[in-house]
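My current task is to audit a protein record that another person submitted. Alongside the sequence sits a line of tokens, each denoting a local backbone shape. Please read both lines and tell me whether the tokens look consistent with the sequence. Do not assume that whoever made the record got everything right. Thanks in advance; the entry in question is below.
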Amino acid sequence: MTDDAAPQESLAPLHADPATKLPVTSPEFDRVRAGGLGVLLHISPVIFLLFVLQGVPLAPPPPEPTLQLVMDKSPYVGSGPSVLKPAQLPVPKPAPSPTPKPQPTPPPVVPPAPPPPAPPPPPPSHTAPPMPVPPPPAPPPPHPATPAHVAAHTAAPAAPAAAHIGDNQPVGHGEA
């Protein structure tokens, strides 16, 4: 190949060939992995750890909880060991004295002071007197009772108007 052909090959699209997609391993490692030496390679770290940790003592298991241990650590009042320490003994109360003690006298009750008198009204100023309130309007004249007017109020109502399309009328009302 020439130097001019190399750049053209690198610009060509790459196509994956399934036949060339094989794992890259060395044949020596395949033989070691397949044989007994491969088993030893996989197990040897575990054997080494067991050998090193053989002389290391394990921590002892925690003690089994007993009823006394639970009572000593209980957060509830009145629980715990039944033996009281000297500082926890109850303090005896002094006996009441047979002579009565004098009661203090309450302070005398003082009635509240009367309220101060109201200030006098201000003197009249130089303003105009208030406007008089107008009288209420007169009642309207009586309604005319002509025969035509009475007939208009007592006549039967006119026929209902025809409903338009789209009115929200119940069925049977206002339909033409």
